[in-house]
Description:
Helices cover 13% and strands 38% of the residues. By secondary structure, the protein is mainly beta. It is elongated and about 90 Å long. It contains 6 helices and 27 strands. The protein has helices at 2-19, 275-279, 282-287, 293-299, 309-318, 322-329, and strands at 22-30, 37-42, 47-52, 56-60, 75-78, 85-92, 96-103, 109-117, 120-127, 132-139, 144-151, 160-167, 182-186, 193-199, 202-208, 214-220, 232-236, 239-242, 265-266, 290-291, 304-305, 357-358, 365-366, 371-379, 384-391, 397-403, 413-414.
Amino acid sequence: MKKFTFIVSFLLTISILQAQDYLISFTGSGQSNSVDSIQVENLSQGTKLSFNGNDVLHLVGTVGINALTGNESNVKIYPNPMIISTLVEFFNSTTQPVCLEIYNEMGVLIAKRSAQFQKGRLRFEISGLNQGIYNVNVKAADWRYSAKLISIGNNPGNIEIKYQVTDDGTSFKNDIKSTQEIVQMQYNDGEMILFKSFAENYSRVLTLVPTQSQTVNFEFVICSDNDGKGYSVVTIGSQTWMAENLAYLPSVSPSSDGSITIPYYYVNGYQGTNVNDAKATSCYQIYGVLYNWPAALDACPSGWHLPSDGEWTTLTDYLGGLSIAGGKLKETGTTHWESPNSGATNENGFTALPAGDRDFNHGVFGELGYYSIWWSSTESSQNFAWYRYLDYNDIKMFSDKYVKPCGYSVRCIKD
């Protein structure tokens, strides 16, 4: 009975690991067909990785299990991962029958080529494999080699194994080696992954709960201010938002007269007038700029605008209402938010940061780490406008109105 229980437990463990064995590749569209680099965060665990855009992310139950970073030294597969086809090289020590076999992830033989070949280094071409992880075995009477092969192409599944050539030398010239690498990340089924991609001056954020191997496409759109600074964007429902606070800071010196007709721009904690010095501060780099309401109306990049109160409502309705939307918008963890950062999941990639505010009466900065506060374009009266805010200790999004000279953050929405 104990032996039976052990076997069942072992098989269950193996099935769980296989269920979490996903390959994620990446493509670009829109303003860029290629992806330069990617940042990945497991929002459930708080773990992060960065890698090149043409690399493949391998999500596994246990990092190091079935590692896919290389092949046995006696057999070479390139390119690996393959898209359309790949080459397999190995050395045949004598003139004898040789067999090349391909097995899928379940251990089922799906293709085979067997024949007698001359002594030397053999080369075969494999094509037609669907997306997945495969074992390639080559064997003869007195030797056997094995290696992993990954396919990320959308092939029809008509598998072919073609013999190419035998070489008397010790190796072939490897003129088509792949520059792709396999990057492993521990993953448990049901966890949320955030992807942030970069291509030139463009950046796109999306979130995903992977359930299979797939290709993730990033649609890059133009979102850059008058200084040429590019911003990450995220699509939530029918809307496309900035995925970070606006940080446009023109050469306008703030005044202390409290006028609501002149646009003012502030960096939390910075009281000087040198724009370049302000941009060098950590608050500017992380949290962006605080704007009074007249400045916020005109600060967004071309093709983008300050959201109306109704557009904020469209966002919160999509997220389930004001009572729970705040937690879904906040960046997870307490790196920027004060503890406890209640209910933060960032499940749509909005990545709200607590930039605080600037009081209009005394020019005092405050609440950094405690609140995210954004202007809307909707007036309440001549002196007041509507805004939205999030609290470090609540999952709600709040809606209120206040005087226009206050300094709040800006998130722009695509026209």
